Amino acid sequence: MTSRPAQSLLVELNSFIGRERDLAELSRLVADARLVTVTGPGGIGKSRLASRFASLTSANFDGVFHVQLAPTSDPDLVVHAVASTLAIRGEPGRTILETLTARLGQGRFLIVLDNCERVLDGVAPLARALLEGCPELWVLATSREPLNVPGEALHVVHGLPQAEAVALFVDRARQVQPTFGRAQVIPGLADVCRQLDGMPLAIELAAVHARSMPPAEMLIHLDDRFKLLVTPGRIDPRHATLKATIDWSYELLTEEERTVFRNLAIFPASFDLATAAAVCERDLIPLLSRLVEESMVVSSTDGHESGRYHLLDTIRHYGRDRLEEAGEREAAERRFIAHFVATCDVEVARLAAAEQSSWLARTERDYESLRGVLALTRAREPATMLRLGATLAWFWFVRGYWAEGLDWVEAALAASTEHSSARARLLSGAVDLARYLNRYSDGRRYGDEALRLYGEQGDGAGRAETLFRVGWLAMPNQRFDEAESCFQEVMRMARQLDSAPLMMRAFLGLGQVRWRLGKSRESLRLLLQGQATAQSLDDERTLMLFSDTLGHVLHDLGRLNDARRHFAESHDAAHRLGDRYHAAHTLLNIAFVDLKRGDDAAIAASLEASLRTFAELGQRVDVSLSLDGLALLATEQRDYQRALRLFAAAGGIRRSIGAGWSAAHHARVKAAIARCHEALPAPRARQAWREGESMTVEQALKSVLAKEPPAVVELSRRERAIAALIGEGLTSAQIASRLKIAERTVDSHAEHIRNKLGLHSRAQIAAWAVRELLATRSG
């Protein structure tokens, strides 16, 4: 072998932060492939990562060379740039490629070809020729798109994880402001890094301003980030400004690709191929693939294994600026609005259950875009905003966007004064949103206006549906006479209109009123009549509500097995319908049934999971019920002081909002409180009660939920599925039937699960599943 050639590596002028996972993945790829291309958008850190990897692995090679191709604009000059870096000159009778191949064939070498995107037509054939001629040569390329050479392995670089992004900002900020970051919390820092997509170049450019501007102030200016993120002193003009970095990529696009890219910038979040094609008004299959390859668009899959695409926030801002410059923004926004209004504006209540679930899932995936449509139509097309809001009211209700939904309702009502059917539908839907936020007066105002509009329009069904919602609104505030009056009127109108759906709702409402008044047998009769109608109509959502209410009534009548079965049916329906709140509510109800029947750990896990969801959704009545459940459990465990604190906290929450629950629940809680007082010395009981009464909602939650996070347990997909089914109470035979596997296979998996989790029984698997799997699914 010839003497070892000199190496050519970039000198690191500042510290290298993070990227351990990327470096590990590059090591794995280089072990399996001799050509690895590091791809990603400009400014994401491809060159620095490749240089770091080359430096760390240099001991494994006879020579490592970093070839900088950014200054090269002619593909024919690539081979000369490589030869120059290796200090190789032409030899008589040989081409420069032949000389390179001969030299690199004499040992084990790594060449980093950096910034290949502008000269791919020169890089790709050169890399292929060298790899074919040099069996111990490795090529590590950085490019905004792949080389498309046989045997090429790709590593896509993403933004830094949040912790690494913050660490990079602090490190670079201290170079200009040595005292930066000495405080434990730096307001706005994490948000700056998040809005910059964890892009190292953007973070470094922002950190320069730490000398004169705190991160919280930087946030205000990030909408105009291309003016803010400028560092004229940089040697490389491509990285002197954030805009120059993206300009470099944009200029590499064809004119058609630029047009599509500009139009895609109208999306505020992810989108699918069909939606993008509608907004861009063209077939995007080849073009979108090219933009992904060129690192201008990011591809991914959602939980339904559907292809999704999005632009990094910084690149989206750039694209919108270009869209504005091209005079195309208004037309793009019109197409954007038209597409989402056309696909979203449906009569959801008339869809079958499966179609409702599909609509909800699709609306959830596109909700960021729908927010954008609402914002655009507010000033431009107020009637369209009103119509879209009327459709989305049901989505806001089911998916728990109650406060946000009411904000949009108020905005839509203010934007348009027309007395249309859409306005009446929006107002009627807003009654449910107000109920879940315990805003009775607002809900009644919405309901009264909706009733007036439906009356003017002669829409009896709409008026009856609104009366049903107003009746339901009255119950959390114990206005049972008002609720009874509304539901009786719904019953009268149902008979007058000969409407089975309205009759079903009247039975449900009247059954609820009777149950809350403690008239369980009368309630049971009404609910069974209504349930039969719901079954004949195949109305899964209303059946879910009947099952839930029947569960409560049967629980109060002492028929625990029947109650649990109805709650479980309601819980399953909530999952199918994607109703997060109701899934948590039924999990809470199952825990109440199981208080004297099941495993304490499983009951506590169900109650805590429900409590988290209710707290997140702002449902204080249900937070209080979850606290009652935990207090009842503490009573059974003879932890009387804890029980009294939780009972007092729950009661205080209900009093603060004027809410109540059923007579039977009140009686059960009252009996448990009396038991606690009997078991404790009076001073200790009074102290525990005072502590609970003085708790805010946040303090009560913290006292229950502040625990060490559980260790991560690696179960396979099949093991997690089986654990979840065990948590639902299924036997091995039932699980085998559902998953279409042998029963002995189920038992074998259950044994593996016990071993991995360090558990000793099937009941403990069920408790773990409720806490870690079913509770998460319910959320």
Q: Estimate the global geometry from the Cα principal axes.
A: globular
Low-confidence stretches: 1-6, 708-713, 774-779
**N-to-C span:** 64 Å
What is the mean pLDDT? Answer: 84
| CATH architect. name of the domain at 20-156 | 3-Layer(aba) Sandwich
Output the number of helix runs: 39
Reported by name, the CATH topology of the domain at 20-156 is: Rossmann fold
Strand content: under 5%
CATH superfamily of the domain at 20-156: P-loop containing nucleotide triphosphate hydrolases
The helix/strand class is mainly alpha
Portion of residues in helices? 55-70%
Q: How many whole angstroms does the radius of gyration measure?
A: 32 Å
Strand order of the largest sheet: 2-3-4-1-5
Tell me about the largest β-sheet.
Answer: 5 strands, parallel
The beta-strand count equals 7
CATH top level label of the domain at 20-156: Alpha Beta
| Oligomer category | single chain
